[in-house]
Write a structure and sequence with these properties.
This protein is mainly α. The protein has helices at about 20-35, 50-55.
């Protein structure tokens, strides 16, 4: 959080999540239905095949890769 605005500026840390493609679809759909966002991005380590496969399964496309 920033002191000036109290808003988030990003995130950092370790997260352990068990998310299958059905959960990912639900999160995607909820974001589009309840926000003004017209684009969502998913970021992951390029070697994380499971996360990449889940993102691809819900219709996401790879835009770039940084190694």
């Amino acid at each position: 959080m920033t002191i000036e605005t109290g808003g988030f500026t990003g995130n950092c840390g370790l997260t352990i999540q068990n998310i299958d493609s059905e959960a990912a679809k639900a999160v995607r759909d909820r974001a589009f239905e309840n926000t003004d966002f017209d684009t969502l991005y998913s970021y992951m380590k390029y070697t994380n095949v499971g996360s990449y496969s889940t993102a691809e399964a819900i219709g996401m496309k790879k835009l770039k890769e940084k190694k």
